[in-house]
Amino acid sequence: MDIKRRLIWATIIILVLWLATYAITKAPTTSAPQTSSAGTTAPTVNLADAAYTVAGTNYALNDGVATMAEPGSSAQDTLRLYQATLGDLKGSGEQDAAVILINEAGGSGTFYYLAAAFAGGSTTPAVLLGDRIETDSVAIQNRTVIVRYKDRLANQPFSATPTVSKIATYAVVNGALIQQ
Asked: Residue 1: what pLDDT?
């Protein structure tokens, strides 16, 4: 009887951990339009259903995910919306968004990209943040996107856990994100 109880509790714990992991990794969505207390509106584009350009490839997300077959391969190229934050990137008084996207193109890499989505519905081409990094936060302050993340030292393999804290800042210049 003691073994049965342990098995039941182990099953419950595994289910709770799985549900927590699912809730944390579920892509965020922002419905439009919303009005904040400052009177600005959220992007008219639903971030989880927007179109993004990553490394020259156009992706149309559906519920935060886009999947394409890799030409000549059984591998899948997947882009996921990972994190997003709202703020004014163009000084227009409207709410734009900075989004972190994860691209897994069938190889061993998990590439993190940053893009901006504007209140009018357009997006910038995504810029590469890194391969198999760990993002801590993304924020918009004074029309600048600030990404805090962890990476590895240059001589460490990608299998090593990212431990080196980094901060990257970007501004929108002529419709593109430019690192500052």
From this structure: 57
